[in-house]
Design goal:
The chain has about 160 residues and is of the alpha+beta class. It is about 20% helix and about 40% strand. The strands form 2 sheets. It has a 7-stranded antiparallel sheet with strand order 1-9-6-11-4-3-2. The chain is globular and about 45 Å long.
Length: about 160
């Protein structure tokens, strides 16, 4: 059984506007989307990420790779935990209104007690990938999320302690 505070944390501030503009260019460019698990993905260069003060600070603490995930319209990525990472930091890049991320606080396999992460555009969220979560895009447009994967293992609570300092 989990509490809401175990699932995600809204990191104060927003992503640098220049970085967001460049991420929009990456989304629209002709480079092919790669398959990353069930998502389409594009890699984001570290040199762009560190132009944002927070990601610069974070990279100095813990190296990571970054990418943009595209989730197709009318798609559900069912309850799961991420096997390759315990924690990430996500940013919703577009203003999709009908897209949802849920965490399972407790459940019996049929009925779940859940909490929703209601993303605010351009805002960073520490996201606990080790807790069952589900992403649903009910919108008519794709959902684009900036996400990172740390090169060395770290837990949600370890990173939360660092980010709060």
């Amino acid at each position: 059984m989990y509490d809401r505070e175990d699932c995600f944390y809204q990191i104060p501030g927003v992503v640098d506007p220049y970085v967001l503009q460049e991420l929009a260019v990456i989304i629209q460019n002709d480079e092919p989307w790669l398959q990353s698990y069930a998502f389409d993905a594009k890699l984001v260069d570290k040199d762009l990420m560190v132009k944002d003060w927070f990601y610069k600070w974070l990279y100095e603490q813990r190296e990571f790779d970054a990418g943009i995930l595209r989730i197709a319209p009318s798609t559900c990525y069912k309850w799961h935990t991420d096997c390759e990472r315990n924690v990430t930091i996500n940013v919703l890049l577009n203003g999709v209104h009908n897209s949802h991320a849920y965490f399972e606080l407790s459940g019996d396999g049929t009925v779940s007690n859940i909490v929703e992460l209601s993303y605010e555009r351009r805002t960073r969220y520490l996201f606990n990938c080790a807790i069952q979560h589900e992403v649903i895009n009910l919108d008519v447009l794709p959902r684009y999320v900036l996400t990172i994967q740390f090169k060395q293992p770290v837990t949600f609570h370890e990173l939360l302690e660092q980010v709060r300092k």
